[in-house]
């Protein structure tokens, strides 16, 4: 293997300035400014299936059931809401805030195997649980084999 010496061109002298601008913009504005936070926060979900239903569990720490809306429109289940910052007091100074806040919306397309009239939702300890029961025809069943 041989080393090849690179010649400096006119473009390279400005490159360090561009790196400096990139990092200064990133750190001066910060990755946590309100605009960015509103775009990136969505509750994490698990979707679990058993023989009778699907279950959506969404982590929403610090939220209450009144902060969340669930809608069903044309086979699409949407969970939306807003987690508001606790630090809006003028007497307080927040030195570090790593938790994210803002509006969110998650949508899931449902199969036609869901009994939409029996969907149930509950909220406990910061976890939203939505149970999507299967219609009887979609539930697994054992088929008996006949002997001739």
Explain this structure to me?
This protein is 15% helix and 31% strand. With 148 residues, it is α+β, with helices and mostly antiparallel strands. The protein has a single domain (14-86, 99-138), classed as Immunoglobulin-like. A hairpin with a 2-residue loop joins strand 6 and strand 7. The protein is elongated and about 85 Å long. The model has no long low-confidence stretch (mean pLDDT 79).
Number of domains: 1
Order of helices and strands: HHEEEEEEE
Strand order in the sheet with the most strands = 1-2-7-6
Mean pLDDT: 79
Query: What's the main sheet like?
Result: 4 strands, antiparallel
Question: What is the CATH top level name?
Answer: Mainly Beta
Proportion of residues in extended strands = 25-35%
Radius of gyration equals: 26 Å
List how many beta strands DSSP finds: 7
Classify the oligomer.
single chain
CATH-assigned fold name: Immunoglobulin-like
Helical proportion, percent range: 10-25%
How large is the count of helical segments? 2
Structural class: alpha+beta
Shape: elongated
Which parts are unreliable, with pLDDT below 50 for 5 consecutive residues or more?
none
User: What is the terminal separation in angstroms?
Assistant: 77 Å
The CATH architecture designation is Sandwich
């Amino acid at each position: 293997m041989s080393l090849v010496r690179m010649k400096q061109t006119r473009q390279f002298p400005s490159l360090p300035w561009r790196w400096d601008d990139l990092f200064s913009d990133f750190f001066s504005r910060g990755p946590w400014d309100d605009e960015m936070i509103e775009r990136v926060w969505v509750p994490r979900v698990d979707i679990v299936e058993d023989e009778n239903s699907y279950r959506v569990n969404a982590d929403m720490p610090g939220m209450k059931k009144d902060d969340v809306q669930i809608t069903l429109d044309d086979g699409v289940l949407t969970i939306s809401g807003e987690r508001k910052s606790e630090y809006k007091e003028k007497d307080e100074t927040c030195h570090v805030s790593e938790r994210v806040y803002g509006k969110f919306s998650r949508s899931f397309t449902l199969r036609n195997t869901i009994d939409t009239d029996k969907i149930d939702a509950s909220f406990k300890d910061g976890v939203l649980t939505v149970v999507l029961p299967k219609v009887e025809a979609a539930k697994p069943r054992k088929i008996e084999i006949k002997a001739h």
